[in-house]
């Protein structure tokens, strides 16, 4: 189902999500702020011509530019509006009938000496019905008048955007006695005449009068809320004004969440190179596969007749095998990236706005929790935060975050605050996991660092190239990458303190604590010194990675939001491993973590703490204030969950394999959702099957999960090739990677220059 002409859909079709959110057919509508509206309409002249209904639309439109405007002045006269700061001029011209006066005004704009408005919005009919008591003669005269005006409007449409607003239906039961002759039957007859006559002489021309018929659909749903049965309620006319703004401004402002009326972005130089690379990989893999198949057939036909055994040819050399694996991985990746591009860059599939309801968030949550319980199995080991348990933890958190994103639950503050804890818990695991590895293994080699960096960043780098997005756009990966490097630097710098060394002398424990205190001090300083933070990350080449929209403020905000939780994860790992070494805790199968009395007290405190945080988060009134407290208090619920999950031995000994499976591909799920499950870079929802929301979610989810799983396997395969254990080979690969990024930077600079 191709998207087609999204501008036409925006002007003619759609439906309500809930009571007030309008969803155009096949595309997403951006909600313009005052500043955006001014930037779009700077130095523009807009004219609204018509009756009281057009006057309503005029007021709603100018309130998008200046919300302080009041609806006052001569109701049956012209009303001017001007915003001097942006040089915007908007006029309402009172012409309640399509007659000679309206024709004369429109004709004056077609003459060379008069400046034409950039946008012209015209519409009228109800006055003609009222004045002439709904007579057929009035309709006939209306047809004659609109026939004489149509060529003038079509001429204006060559240089201006011209919209003819069809008449909205009325709510006949509420009409006053003086308006009873205005019936929906008459309105339909007038609308039919206007649609038939307009553009009749320019059907094959690009310069057409755009028919604004969507207002009829909106009125059908909301006219019963009208004050007089004739004029639209305020929320409906505001929707019409926002549609008008989207039709004109989306192609200028190019908002991410405004896909209506946006042309498909042209391929960049880097995207073209990526396309060629993936095409060559696919061709190369097919050639090698054909060669191997022919060799296999020759080998099979070559048999030893005397012994009755086949002669086996020598297996291909390791280099050919590695090349084949490399081409196979890039072949699959190329096909997957084509799907990514088609979903979120080409105007092939439909996109819709999100709409939050409590049921759309909580029902799927209950459903996946029930599924998770059904897949309960015994763990291989019963240690605190063992591998199966951490995979399970990542899995259910990722599924909750996915439901949060697709349901648009960020508008509901209590849910938002709990999701913030889940993101913090991911970072907590980053601190816990990497600290534990370096502390126990003492492996600070380049191989380990490269392996982690490759697995974290491979997919994001490919998406930056294919989807033409900056690295910081996928904010979570830069976040975990930087925190991994901070953990590594903290433990790797002199003196390197690891568990083996600390076991020989307890003073080393104090040395490590001193390192952690220094780290905490640096975090605290940077969090309250935005200028210093921005200076650090504004230096090239860091600026290329962490800038978004020309500055690093977004990166500072994301880093600051969970600034302490990685430190908390490192500290927890240190305390837990120290207690484990001294056998203070019991991790046997079915055994409580501490003595029964201590376990019960800690369990009670943990449950109370967990619930207390939830009550606080649910009572949040202001997102900004809650975000300020979040970095310091999120660890409370994280630690409470860990203790509740691990203190009872029987709970620690089981895990959900369902959640653990998703946990193993959690990073890929988090990143892939941007483009092939959600749409418009997470702002909307991808629609593969229009008209069937539930079926669409099932199909798109199945494809999305399969793709994420496949990318996880591709990343693992390529990690073995790109990051070998041999140091000399690894050094060569690193030089190649450095050359790759240098070339990428060069092409990016050329691309930016051509854009400017």
From TrEMBL:
Localisation: Golgi apparatus membrane
InterPro entries (alphabetical): Cas1_AcylTrans_dom (IPR012419), NXPE4_C (IPR057106)
Transmembrane portions of the chain: 269-291, 355-375, 395-416, 446-466, 473-495, 507-526, 561-579, 599-617, 659-680, 692-711, 731-750
GO MF term (any one): N-acetylneuraminate 9-O-acetyltransferase activity
Boundaries of every Cas1p 10 TM acyl transferase domain copy: 253-734
EC number: 2.3.1.45
UniProt keyword terms in alphabetical order: Acyltransferase, Glycoprotein, Golgi apparatus, Membrane, Transferase, Transmembrane, Transmembrane helix
A GO cellular component annotation in the UniProt record: Golgi membrane
Major enzyme class: transferase
Domain annotation NXPE C-terminal: ranges: 22-90
GO process terms (BP): carbohydrate metabolic process
The reaction(s) this protein catalyses: CMP-N-acetyl-beta-neuraminate + acetyl-CoA = CMP-N-acetyl-9-O-acetyl-beta-neuraminate + CoA; a ganglioside GD3 (d18:1(4E)) + acetyl-CoA = a ganglioside Ac-O-7-GD3(d18:1(4E)) + CoA; CMP-N-acetyl-beta-neuraminate + acetyl-CoA = CMP-N-acetyl-7-O-acetyl-beta-neuraminate + CoA
Pfam families linked: Cas1_AcylT (PF07779), NXPE4_C (PF24536)
Topology class, membrane: Multi-pass membrane protein
Family of this protein: Belongs to the PC-esterase family. CASD1 subfamily.
PANTHER family: N-ACETYLNEURAMINATE 9-O-ACETYLTRANSFERASE
Protein name: N-acetylneuraminate (7)9-O-acetyltransferase
Organism per entry: Sapayoa aenigma
Gene encoding the protein: Casd1
């Amino acid at each position: 189902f191709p998207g087609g002409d999204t501008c036409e859909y925006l002007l003619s079709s759609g439906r309500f999500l809930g009571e007030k959110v309008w969803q155009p057919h096949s595309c997403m509508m951006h909600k313009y702020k005052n500043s955006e509206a001014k930037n779009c309409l700077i130095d523009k002249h807009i004219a609204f011509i018509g009756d009281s209904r057009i006057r309503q639309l005029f007021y709603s439109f100018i309130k998008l530019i200046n919300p302080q405007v009041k609806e006052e002045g001569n109701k049956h006269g012209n009303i001017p509006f001007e915003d001097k700061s942006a040089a915007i001029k908007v006029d309402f011209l009172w012409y309640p009938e399509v007659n000679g006066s309206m024709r004369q005004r429109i004709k004056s704009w077609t003459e060379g000496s008069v400046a034409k408005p950039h946008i012209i919005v015209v519409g009228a009919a109800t006055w003609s019905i009222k004045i002439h008591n709904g007579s057929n003669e009035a309709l006939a005269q209306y047809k004659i008048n609109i026939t004489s005006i149509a060529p003038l409007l079509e001429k204006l449409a060559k240089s201006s955007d011209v919209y003819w607003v069809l008449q909205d239906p009325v709510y006949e039961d509420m009409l006053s006695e003086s308006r009873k002759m205005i019936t929906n039957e008459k309105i339909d007859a007038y609308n039919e005449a206007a649609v038939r006559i307009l553009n009749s002489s320019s059907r094959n021309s690009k310069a057409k009068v755009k028919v604004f018929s969507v207002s009829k659909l909106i009125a059908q749903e909301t006219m019963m809320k009208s004050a007089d049965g004739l004029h639209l309620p305020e929320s409906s006319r505001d929707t019409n004004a926002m549609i008008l703004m989207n039709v004109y401004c989306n192609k200028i402002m190019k908002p991410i969440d405004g896909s209506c009326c946006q042309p498909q972005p042209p391929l960049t130089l880097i995207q073209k190179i990526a396309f060629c690379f993936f095409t060559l990989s696919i061709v190369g893999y097919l050639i090698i596969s054909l060669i191997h198949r022919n060799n296999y057939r020759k080998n099979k036909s070559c048999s030893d007749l005397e012994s009755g055994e086949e002669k086996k040819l020598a297996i291909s050399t390791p280099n050919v095998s590695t090349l084949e694996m490399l081409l196979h991985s890039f072949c699959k990746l190329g096909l997957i990236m084509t799907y990514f591009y088609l979903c979120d860059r080409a105007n092939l599939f439909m996109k819709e706005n999100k709409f939050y309801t409590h049921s759309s968030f909580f029902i799927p949550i209950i459903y996946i929790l029930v599924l998770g319980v059904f897949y309960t199995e015994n763990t291989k080991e019963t240690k605190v935060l063992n591998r199966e348990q951490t995979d399970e933890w990542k899995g259910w958190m990722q599924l909750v975050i996915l439901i949060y994103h697709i349901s648009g639950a960020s508008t509901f503050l209590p849910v938002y605050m709990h999701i913030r804890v889940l993101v913090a818990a991911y970072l907590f695991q980053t601190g816990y996991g990497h600290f534990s590895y370096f502390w126990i293994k003492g492996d600070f080699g380049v191989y380990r660092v490269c392996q982690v960096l490759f697995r974290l960043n491979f997919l994001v780098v490919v998406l930056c190239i294919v989807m033409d997005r900056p690295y910081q756009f996928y904010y979570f990966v830069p976040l975990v990458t930087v925190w991994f490097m901070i953990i590594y630097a903290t433990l790797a710098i002199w003196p390197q303190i690891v568990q083996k060394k600390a076991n020989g002398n307890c003073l080393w424990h104090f040395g490590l604590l001193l390192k952690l205190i220094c780290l905490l001090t640096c975090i605290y300083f940077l969090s309250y010194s935005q200028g210093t933070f921005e200076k650090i990350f504004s230096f090239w080449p860091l600026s290329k990675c962490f800038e978004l929209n020309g500055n690093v403020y977004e990166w500072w905000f994301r880093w600051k939001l969970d600034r302490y939780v990685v430190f908390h994860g490192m500290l927890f790992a240190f305390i837990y491993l120290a207690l484990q070494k001294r056998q203070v805790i019991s991790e046997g199968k079915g055994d409580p973590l501490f003595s029964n009395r201590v376990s019960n007290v800690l369990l009670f405190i943990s449950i109370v703490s967990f619930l207390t945080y939830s009550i606080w988060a649910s009572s949040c009134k202001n997102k900004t204030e809650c975000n300020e407290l979040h970095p310091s208090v999120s660890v409370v619920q994280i630690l409470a969950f860990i203790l509740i999950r691990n203190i009872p031995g029987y709970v620690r000994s089981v895990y959900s394999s369902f959640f653990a499976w998703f946990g193993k591909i959690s990073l890929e799920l988090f990143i892939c959702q941007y483009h092939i499950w959600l749409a418009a870079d997470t702002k909307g929802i991808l629609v593969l099957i229009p008209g069937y929301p539930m079926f669409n979610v099932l199909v798109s989810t199945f494809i999305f999960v399969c793709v994420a799983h496949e990318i996880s396997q591709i990343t693992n395969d390529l990690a073995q090739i790109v990051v070998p254990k041999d140091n000399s080979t690894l050094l060569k690969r690193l030089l190649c990677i450095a050359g790759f990024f240098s070339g990428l930077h060069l092409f990016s600079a050329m691309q930016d220059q051509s854009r400017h």
